[in-house]
Amino acid sequence: MNKEAWKEVEAAVAVSRGRTIKELFVDDPGRVARYTASAAGWTLDWSKNRIDTPTWRALLKLAEASDLKTEIERMFTGEKINRTEKRAVLHTALRNCDPEAKVFVDGKDVMPDVRSTLAKMAAFAERVRNGEHRGHTGKRIKYVVNIGIGGSDLGPVMANIALAPFGKRSIKCYFVSNVDSTHLAETLREVKADQTLFIVASKTFTTQETMTNALSARAWLMERLPCVNPNNVVAKHFVALSTNAAEVSKFGIDLENMFGFWDWVGGRYSLPSAIGLSLMLFIGPRNFTRFLKGYWKMDRHFRTARFDRNLPVILALLGILYSNAYGAESYAVLPYDQYLSRFPAYLQQMDMESNGKSVDRDGKRVTHATGPIEWGEPGTNGQHSFYQLIHQGTHLIPCDFIGFCKTHNPIGDHHDKLMANFFAQTEALAFGKTAEQCRAEGDPEELVPFKTFEGNRPTNTLLADELTPETLGALIALYEHKVFVQGIIWNIYSFDQWGVQLGKVLAKNVLADLTASGTPVLRHDASTNALIARYRKVLGR
User: Fold this and answer.
1) How is 23-64 classified by DSSP, letter by letter?
2) Which terminal residue of the chain, N or C, has fewer Cβ atoms less than 10 Å from its own Cβ?
3) For residues 479 and 473, is the Cβ–Cβ distance under 8 A?
4) Of these residues, 7, 250, 406, 504, which one is catalytic?
5) 183 counts as catalytic
6) Exposed/middle/buried for 308, CB within 10 Å: 0-12, 13-18, 19+?
7) Annotated catalytic, 353?
8) Residue in 8, 353, 374, 480 annotated catalytic
9) pLDDT (tens digit per residue) in 471-525
10) pTM of the model
């Protein structure tokens, strides 16, 4: 992080720290207009934050001092900004809707391949949706089971729930990620073999959890649809999202039904790629195109808007303010729409896998906090769970409230009541309730300390007209770019994830010990050795 620019932020915060959000509103009648901006169908109100003009100017100078504009262009133009893996970072190319656009990696324009893959996905999706592609027995596909993990699961799960109002309800989508056999077993109880299409999502087609589940699903299918040539059944009921043609063919999948993607697409950013096939099957190619256009609108806004009106930059700077100046260790994402129930879980991977780093881009230990813990639940459920801690607890937890003016399911006054809570919570968090107000309402003196809310809890409000494919795509892109901006300012690499590797490597050795036919010689630490021994004893090994 740029030390000189950060010192200016700290100096501004030292002056403003003693002023509450309530006082900032009283002193600045134009605050809301100045701290509200709109883009790609979304309006962001960040006026209920602990910022005054000097603090905000210092944060914007921090972005400039980090050479953010140059770094944005480096990403969009295909430079290899993922230095530890020597890769470009081009998820933005996946949703570039400009038919004339050209984006180069190693001298090759990648856009023709992007467009070709999308067209191939669309053609296949239409064949499934209109009944042209059928199962081995001739029945229409009714169930889609996506088998993947990490970015190959979290994005598709979230988006299929979020865009249910636009889905083909006769197609039911299921998602299997966990290598725990329960996940697969419970899913297979819900589907019929002769009407099920399995999507196996693994770039290398060697991912342990995914391939274990895929092989078990294939065995289940073979038991129920016996055939002289099993590959004839597999070809009708399995497709692959992969680049390893040899392993895909070996599995029995028709290579015509293999949809590829590229090493410049990180898993947690891959939803607009072939990884989104389950979503396209559900909502159709036309709505999937609308989804991509939402991403694209936010991409263009991020690339061109000045920083003080740039929604991803604004969210990023506010997050840095609370992480690095106020010591906040987490932030909550609180969607007031049940369709976004899995959005916080999706953001956990996007944010925490990207910026959960303790080494900077020079390979040195960082001296400042980096990626915060992200968490959340839909409103109003969360209000009856953890809001108590946000309002009156000892931890500072900045919150993003996400809502929509219109509902897809108008029943009585449900939506008005939902949104009344949405608006009221940010008001309560910002302005609180004084002891004097409690007394004026007749609260007994002994209860006044318990019923007082100090307020001054920061929130951002993101509001759109309605949840649509476009607004969902734009919302995802907003948070993607927020994470990118924070990585640049913190001087860390946001697009690798070496921290997930060690456990995988150790698990292979542990698996050999768990399944050894004789008594293995355990060479782990004393705790792990004892746990393995107990496991084996229970299973009689």
Assistant:
1) HHHHH-TTHHHHTEEEETTEEEE--SSS--HHHHHHHHHHHH
2) C
3) no
4) 504
5) no
6) middle
7) yes
8) 353
9) 999 999 999 999 999 999 999 999 999 999 999 999 999 999 999 999 999 999 9
10) 0.97
